Amino acid sequence: MNPNLDRLQPYPFSKLLALKAGLKPADKAHIALSIGEPKHAPPAFVYDELIKHLDKLPSYPLTKGIAPLRAAIANWLRARFQLASVCAETQVLPVSGTREALFAFAQTMVSPGSKVLMPNPFYQIYEGGALLAGAEPHFVNCQAAHGFKPDFAAVSAAVWRQCDLLYLCSPGNPTGALLDAADFRQLIQLADRYDFTIAADECYSELYFDEGAPPIGLLQACEDIGRNDFRRCVVFHSLSKRSNLPGLRSGFVAGDAQLLEKFLLYRTYHGCAMPLHTQYASIAAWRDEQHVRQNRALYREKFTAVLDILDGCLDVQRPQASFYLWPLVGDGEHFATELFRQQNVTVLPGAYLARDSGDVNPGSNYVRIALVATLQECVQAAQRIRTFCR
């Protein structure tokens, strides 16, 4: 048995279940704001496409995906990030949800004993992927003093020399912080100097507030400096948050063609091809932006309503993007426990999303609140939180 399995920590929601075990909550309807599972209605046309192509079930899908899907993704990337060219044949690879792809990417790109750098707090798949590839996670703290961006200046040259892979997350989970063009340029220069790959998790890139100012992406930063081959750089995108389709398990990886060639080889053995009816439904989703704009409008409405209620009672600000709030609450675990017990509202302790690094757990004084429930439930939860804080 792989001995690295023993190094995996319990998933955050397993820790949360253990925290709540035995607690008797208040006699109120439960409101769950802990899991980042979108609850808005998916676009109806996706259902239609799924049904329309159920006749493809008898056929094995190709790991590389069908050409029309790769073309739809390439066209979306060009339009969304103002890219001059993306090769649908060599620079795009559909995946069965970015969770499995982010994990599998480490198995392909790192050598045993190397380091995999990641933000802290972070999406736990980064850590698991690194550990099961035989690498050592190195956590880069994201704290208020640096705008919740990873403090890359604190990483020593010795650590960079051992780095095979750097995971990024912009917009960040759980903070919503954004990396800018200068941040990406600095990291690309470091990747060239120390010979590592950058894997940018951009799954929240379509959840932003200003329709005129979408977040920049890693490939966009590459093209801005003339790096049209996206060397050393790949991005991960998903329909889960963008289109409210977490159950479709549909996303893609795009970027450096040489890296994707090796990743495709791994995935061919891995056996994780996307079903054909899912691919056709995904084409329709990537081709449509109206439902995505409507989705953002729903989140804007919820953020405005919730932040108005919480104003003056909780140390919290609107994030730059994503659907999370990251309030400073003191002891996050105690806050989550008592909020559940007194108000029957579930939020996630920030410490469960982070690791001790540099004598600090950068999530311990926070909780993550996912505004994924209905507007009515979010408003009701905010009112209960306000009562609890008072």
Describe this entry's structure for a reader.
Helix 4 (98-109) packs parallel to helix 5 (124-132). With 390 residues, the chain is α/β, with parallel strands linked by helices. It has 14 helices and twelve strands. The chain has a seven-stranded mixed β-sheet with strand order 2-8-7-6-5-3-4, sandwiched between helices. A three-stranded antiparallel β-sheet has the order 9-12-11. A two-stranded parallel ribbon has the order 1-10. Helix 7 (181-194) links the parallel strand 5 (163-169) and strand 6. It is globular, with a radius of gyration of 21 Å. The longest helix is centred in the C-terminal third of the chain and has 21 residues, at 290-310. Helix content is 41%, strand content 13%. It folds into two domains: 10-41 and 291-389, Aspartate Aminotransferase, domain 1 (Alpha-Beta Complex), CATH 3.90.1150; 44-287, Type I PLP-dependent aspartate aminotransferase-like (Major domain) (Aspartate Aminotransferase, domain 2, 3-Layer(aba) Sandwich), CATH 3.40.640.
